[in-house]
Design brief:
Elements (H helix, E strand, L loop, with lengths): L1 H8 L4 H7 L5 H12 L3 H7 L9
C-alpha cells in the first residue's frame, strides 16, 4: 500500500502505481485501499503523509 500511494503522490496513474506495488490491477488497489482505510487511493494520496521518521 505504501508503495502504491507513494507512486500516486509522485504522479503515477493508479494502474501504474498498482502494478509497481504488486497489485493485479487498479481495481485491486482500490478495493484494498477502501477496505483498509475507507477511502479510494486517489483521495488517500492527497491526505496521507508517510512520515516514518522515528528519531523524534
Amino acid at each position: 500500500m505504501h508503495i502504491a500511494i507513494t507512486r500516486v503522490q509522485a504522479g503515477d496513474d493508479l494502474t501504474t502505481a498498482a502494478h509497481t506495488a504488486g497489485f493485479a490491477d487498479s481495481a485491486h488497489l482500490s478495493r484494498t485501499c477502501r477496505d483498509t482505510f475507507g477511502l479510494p487511493p486517489s483521495l488517500l494520496s492527497k491526505h496521507l503523509n508517510w512520515d516514518l521518521d522515528t528519531s523524534v
